[in-house]
Protein: Carbohydrate kinase FGGY N-terminal domain-containing protein
Organism: Aegilops tauschii subsp. strangulata
Amino acid sequence: SVKATVLSNELIIVASETVNFDSELPHYKTEGGVYRDPTDDGRIYSPTIMWVEALELLLEKLKPKINFSKVVAVSGSGQQHGSVYWKKGSQAVLSSLDPGKSLVSQLKDAFSTMDSPIWMDSSTTKQCREVENAVGGALELSKLTGSRAYERFTGPQIRKIYQTAPHIYENTERISLVSSFMASILVGCYASIDETDGAGMNLMDINKRTWSKAVLEATAPDLEQKLGNLAPACAAAGRISSYFVERHQFDKNCFVIQWSGDNPNSLAGFNTEYTWRSCYQPWYQ
């Protein structure tokens, strides 16, 4: 499902709405919001355009409850590890959305694949071992990226697409996580992946907070260009797109703050302070 909660500046809940994928968007015929591929063991994915339609429906459900022009900032939490593949030319589509038309009608052809691999997928064991071996083993990968390779992580998922569907990879202009995908729609251009969600991809050097060139090279060619730059989790992705200003009457100065993953956002919600050991053991075993 996708859920929106509107807070006042005193952090009081003003309104809340939810869209359930299975019951409210039944034409996608998902079960639990996903598809399970009967021909590819462990392959589980969601239809990308369903998330777009869910966002539209969510805003329509909120419209009677709040005045969008009073919204100062929007941010969000996306399911971690899921990925979206924008096809070449989609940046131009995002930046010129017609407020008289739905998002679905304008973005239905914006993706090089309509299937978004998600965290439930376990079909990339081969790619996990290949990436680990390329950088010197699972322990070396964990030192670089924070963990050994896991099937659900975005790096192995990207490598699988590159290997099994090279035409899709070649036609991809930008790879987003679910979090940066939703932020991209709201700002009308490609939003950066934030550092905290990016840390769960098996692609980022967690000590330098940059993409690891060694792991990128082990994953797929020209990957850094397709990923774009990383951004701090607290940064502003930009002002809200004119599409939402004209269609839903958001204020043109409304900020879109970097979206992140559900796991790091849940951790942040605990309001807990951590002290790191000076010599930590990466999450390997």
